[in-house]
Specification:
By secondary structure, this protein is an all-alpha fold. It is built from seven helices and no strands. The radius of gyration is 19 Å and the shape is flat.
Length: about 170
Amino acid sequence: MALIPMIASGTAAVVFLLFLCYQAWRQSGNAVGIEPLSPVDLEAFRNLTDPEEVRFLRTNLLPKEFRKVQRMRLRAAEAYLSVISQNAGRLVAMGRSMSAHADAETAAAGLDVVYRAFQLKLWCSLSLLKLNVTMMFPTLLSPSSRIADRYLDVSSLTASLPKKLAA
């Protein structure tokens, strides 16, 4: 009896993940007219998503004040995530462009950038979903700061992109 709801919810979850993958890939754009990456203050983003900071605020503020402050922090984190997601799309486009390079090493590096940037874009989509739920229940959930590390990893990979593309 309980098997049918589990199968239905599992199927819905898989369909939702496939939809997120499709959206992330579609929004990543193409290599024509790749815009430069927008600046992101990762230290500020980490502060907004730091569980210790949330605990500190929860301890030192009245519950009503904490919910208000936490919602403002979550909106700011959402803005950072949106920029990181847009940058991830640009990184996918850069990687795609690089993957078509004649040099095999450059092409392989481009595929690596595409793979990691696409994962980052998907991670951003899931984090934005979690943030929206967290805004409704600011005392229950806390956003993850791990996305800042992933962004730093992918963006540092592309630091040598212009040099390799010019070669």
